[in-house]
Amino acid sequence: MDAKIIVITMGLNDIVKNLVEKTNVVGIIECAPRKQKNRMLNKFIRETFAFSLKVKEKFSKNIFTLQKFSKKKGIPYFYMTKNSSDLENWIQSKNPDLIIIYSMSMLLKKNIFEIPKYGTINLHPSLLPKYRGPNPIFWQYYFFEKKGGITLHYIDEGEDTGDIIYQKSFDIYLGMGVEKFRRNVVEYGSKLILKAIENFDSLPRLKQPKESPTPRARNINSYEIWDLISWNNWTIKRVFHLFKGIEGWLDIPYGNFYVLKPLIYERVPRSNLKTPGRLYKLDRDKFEVFAKDGRIILSKEFDFKRIIIKG
After folding, report:
1. Among 198, 232, 258, which residue terminates a domain?
2. Rounded CA gap, 168 and 184, in Å?
3. C-alpha dist (Å) from residue 159 to 8, 31, 126, 181, 235
4. Is 77:71 a contact under the CB 8 Å cutoff?
5. Residues 241, 244, 246, CA angle at the centre, nearest 5°?
6. Residues near 186 by Cβ (< 8 Å), separated by ≥ 6?
7. Total-model pTM
């Protein structure tokens, strides 16, 4: 494939690896995280893990950062923030045919996404126009969607509102973890992107409706989740499905240094139901919580990340 590609993403991921392996990537742009409120905390986190990463790198062939990966592959690298005034010149110097975005924390400005001759396209993990916004995966679990999917679409000045190129749907089965969802995004998304690159000069364009049928897929933090659940109205299956979907990603916090992990759910006779949404202790490390028709057993587990956050 001769098309010159620039990739914009956050961190090293399989989408980038596939594109570098199979296409002509002439530049990699890493987008800064959405929020960097505490630079000293970020510095502390980096330094805390620096030694362990060095040890791992010494005994492993893994590359731990996108920047190191780019350097190893001999591909120009650019770290983008909201104040990257030289981004436009950097992209123009690479003369790309196409920019491909996968996972980005900010909207790209028009003077940037119009640089490539054939435009800028984005891989979004929902079936647009549903779940526009930065966190579509969470909200698909929250609204108990049975079908998930991905959309490859053109970038415009809106938030995930550009013309649709390709889409692919897949099942979200009960209790499916987020890692399986993400593997689907990588597997199907890689195929759609490669298909688009093969046909980049004649891609389909399906205009999206102005309004989305779902609320904006805003970002969420783990402390909000418990109160977002309608404990008196949701089935226990729905609560369990949400908990499994966010496990290892947005785990429910318990105190300063622990999280709650779902173990099992079960239907409970009405006469044995307890107050929905209230946490009941079973033993030292196990709890139960009830919805309108059953209960979930949860385990309390130590979360090292919270030591860093609180420290």
Report:
1. 198
2. 10
3. 16, 16, 13, 22, 33
4. yes
5. 110
6. 13, 14, 15, 18
7. 0.88
Q: How many domains does the chain have?
A: 2
Task: Indicate if 28 and 154 belong to the same structural domain.
Answer: yes
Profile the chain (311 residues) by mean pLDDT over runs of 10 residues.
Answer: 91 95 96 62 43 45 79 96 89 97 92 95 98 97 98 97 98 96 97 95 95 97 96 98 95 93 96 97 96 97 68 44
Tell me the two tokens of residue 206: 């399906």
Q: Give residue for tokens 């089935």.
A: 235
Which residue carries 């030694």 as its tokens?
51
Per-residue tokens: 60: 């492993």
Tallying the residues shown for the chain, one arrives at 311
Amino acid letter, 31:
C
Order of strands across the sheet with 164-171?
77-80, 24-31, 4-9, 98-102, 120-124, 147-154, 164-171
